[in-house]
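Quick log. Single chain, no ligands specified.
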Amino acid sequence: MSLGQGGFWDVQDRLRELSAQGDPLEKLAATVDFVLFRPELTAALGTRDLRKGGRPAFDPVLKFRMLILQALHGLSLAQTEYLVADRLSWMRFCRLGPGDTVPGANTLWDFREALITTGALERLFTRLDEAITAAGYLLMAGQIVDATLVSAPRQRNTDEEKAHIKAGEKAGQIWPDKPTTARQKDTDARWTVKFSKARPGPDGKPQIDIAVPHFGYKSHISIDRRHGVIRRERTTDAAAHDVARLREGLIDPNNTASDVWADTAYRSKANEAFMEENGFVSCVHRRKPKGRPMPHRTAIANGRKSKIRSHVEHVFAEQKSRMGLVIRTIGIARATLKIGMANIVYNVKRLICLEKAAMA
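-> predicted structure:
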């Protein structure tokens, strides 16, 4: 075993081995040219006065690639910095060499804050959607709307502090004499209860439904039925009800079909009227009549809708299980960026699958 200093060709040989084994990051970089995001990233950072001197700034596309890696693996900024410096495949994805300087966690934090301040996330999401559409994957066959809860660090507050939070007061107002405490308090996230339907018991009798308390935020998305790409997104606190979100831009009017699928949480007179007025066809599940059994025809219709609507669950499963989507930051602005980056990364991964299927 040689412990001598490695040479340039040793690195190249190792990278060739990684390519031969099917480096997924190499496929990702080959599918999406991240340079297409440069205009939005440059606009978010603004122009720098070169007369002030100092060390040259890192390329914004490089920092965006690192945020992609962070969202892809559910990492912290410090973990992202370490792994880019440690792994050859991650270096290659970021267009770095073993001797190049890797942007630090603080640099990535400042970059991320600039994206939040300038509202660049929506433009980045739109730019990717335009690229996917230009590649031939149009909005087709209708759209599916759904939401999922995303966990955030739980808060420990007194009843009085909770009352102030519910009244809409900010952390600085609630803890004016404790600035350190105020910085760690998330007054935007909310508690909610998620009910899971219990299976019937061995005797066939219904069991008590399971109620699970949840603290954090909620990711609302709309995917097109044909390609499964996220076309619209929105982030709210966990307590926000799904029903009103349907009328807040989640439905894309550019889809080639007018059908809209969603679960019973989205059924309301206001939503049905909104879809009818705007030329959409409601395929939203119907609720069971109160105090009466579900009509057979309605149960059959809901079953047919479920076969289509269930495709949106694949998005949330991918983001939560493989990408490790959780919120570690404070405030809805940072949570929106975190969830938005997860949606961008999912669309990139989905584009890779579509391109692979097209070549088969």
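The radius of gyration is 24 Å.
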